[in-house]
Amino acid sequence: MVTNLITVTNNDIDTLRQISIETFSDTFGAENSKEDLEKYLESAYDSQKLEKEVENHESNFQFIYYQNQLAGYLKLNIGSAQSELQSDDALEVERIYIKKEFKRLGLGKQLISYAIDEAKKAHKKYIWLGVWEHNEGAIVFYQKQGFVEFSEHIFDLGGDEQRDILMKKSLI
After folding, report:
1. Active-site residue identified among 66, 73, 97, 142
2. What CATH number should be reported for the domain holding residue 159?
């Protein structure tokens, strides 16, 4: 498998925005109203907001390429960049998205391995993430990677409050 991870920079904001909207819509569009989805996408993937996220030294964005084609991306957070918890012992996997035509090629597993390596380099004790309670495929995937449920939170998708399951994987 020929894959490549490339760090996202401010020069990549338009590409990051496009792949974010595409992959989020493909993953969650069918189960949500068009209005809620559009509100969320406009807010979450605003170019200026993405630029600030990419510039944050406590966040790490990686594009993953498969055979020289952009296949997905990953966003990791430590410290105050974490969406919640903000534990000094933790690294958050905030976003992990693969384009639909590149799913089932092992790319998600490769991105999780990268996240684990980054967490270990930073001497973190665990990694964590949130996953929508109805995204059963993702939940099973994370369980296979050694993640366990430990809490939940509310995710606001354009005004629609949804339950996310919080999962973590111990690294010690």
Report:
1. 142
2. 3.40.630.30
